[in-house]
Amino acid sequence: MKPVIVVHGGAGRIFKEREEGSRTGVVRAALRGYGILKQGGSALDAVEEAVRSMEDDPHFNAGCGSVLNEKGEVEMDAIIMDGKNLDSGAVSAVKCIANPIKLARLVMEKTKHMLLTDRGAHLFAQAMGIPETPGEKLITERSRERWKNNLEPDSNPQEFQKDLGTVGAVAIDSEGNVACATSTGGLSNKLTGRVGDTACIGSGGYADNHSGATSTTGHGESIMKVVLARLILYHMEQGMSPEMAADTALDYMKIRVGGLGGVIVVNNSGEWAARFSTKQMSWATVKDNQLHYGIYAGERHTKSVDEALASESEGF
């Protein structure tokens, strides 16, 4: 099996001045994940590494760069899933951790549980020796600015939710195993303790070697109502291509609950898709040593991996 990785940096509205950073960020993440796959590494390691790379990038609403809740704090959710045996690990409402995806993987591998939340997740992180990152370090100027603006009496937080920026990755490795990973800071000015789709298995992501893997982004409550990730895999189980399955599920979510979003998909034969019903979604994929990436509907740039790696080392 030829390995494939697909990543997204969130669906929504990507402001002009942030486009370049979003493109560079998803390309870097895809190249890092593919580097692992190319050396015979697992899909699980590849998606974790790709997502970790975007959590560390302040352009995205995950890890450093996460949006703030109503109290001005960062609370993050993440999930990872192994398509080989349907094992999964997730964390929700976690604070003071640089890479929630790493913690989600530890939940999967070191506990009998699938989801740890808030204080319990914090205690588990301490037990696993994950260093605490001061909350302030995860807050960017932009997130603080947005939080303040949303506190204004005449503000409309809904308007700001359009620029979402959840991050995710899906991959298939040379053994034919699939995996997904998704991580987010959630909605700006959300209620304390609000958990969206990301940490919920079947909504924020799903992976099953029998069909494929998907990671979602968009309006979390809408995604949860239609269990979007699992819905896409169901359509693929009925014989649809990744692209058709993604479009069918996104259309259903829009018509049934008025929700917009985006998804990345890979099936168990290595076909992939990156589809969205929002204005934009930053995405990148590597297959057959070719990198493809874009932000707008219909936009697709292509480079060889070698060319992309060379230009990345020169600062893109």
Structure commentary:
The chain has 316 residues and is an alpha+beta fold. Helix 3 (100-110) links the parallel strand 3 (87-94) and strand 4. A 9-stranded mixed β-sheet has the order 4-3-2-6-5-1-11-12-13. A 4-stranded antiparallel β-sheet has the order 7-8-9-10. The chain has one domain: 4-Layer Sandwich (Glutamine Phosphoribosylpyrophosphate, subunit 1, domain 1). It has helices at 16-38, 43-55, 100-110, 118-127, 135-138, 141-151, 157-160, 220-226, 228-237, 242-257, 305-313, and strands spanning 4-12, 76-82, 87-94, 115-117, 167-172, 178-184, 205-208, 212-218, 261-267, 272-276, 280-287, 290-296, 301-304. The two termini are 30 Å apart. InterPro entries: ASRGL1_meta, Ntn_hydrolases_N, Peptidase_T2.
Offer a quick outline of the entry.
This protein has helices spanning 16-38, 43-55, 100-110, 118-127, 135-138, 141-151, 157-160, 220-226, 228-237, 242-257, 305-313, and strands spanning 4-12, 76-82, 87-94, 115-117, 167-172, 178-184, 205-208, 212-218, 261-267, 272-276, 280-287, 290-296, 301-304.
Write down the Rg: 18 Å
Helical content band: 25-40%
- Gap between N and C termini: 30 Å
Largest sheet: 9 strands, mixed
Protein topology:
Blueprint: E1 4-12, H1 16-38, H2 43-55, E2 76-82, E3 87-94, H3 100-110, E4 115-117, H4 118-127, H5 135-138, H6 141-151, H7 157-160, E5 167-172, E6 178-184, E7 205-208, E8 212-218, H8 220-226, H9 228-237, H10 242-257, E9 261-267, E10 272-276, E11 280-287, E12 290-296, E13 301-304, H11 305-313
Helix pairs in contact: 1-2, 1-11, 2-3, 8-10, 9-10
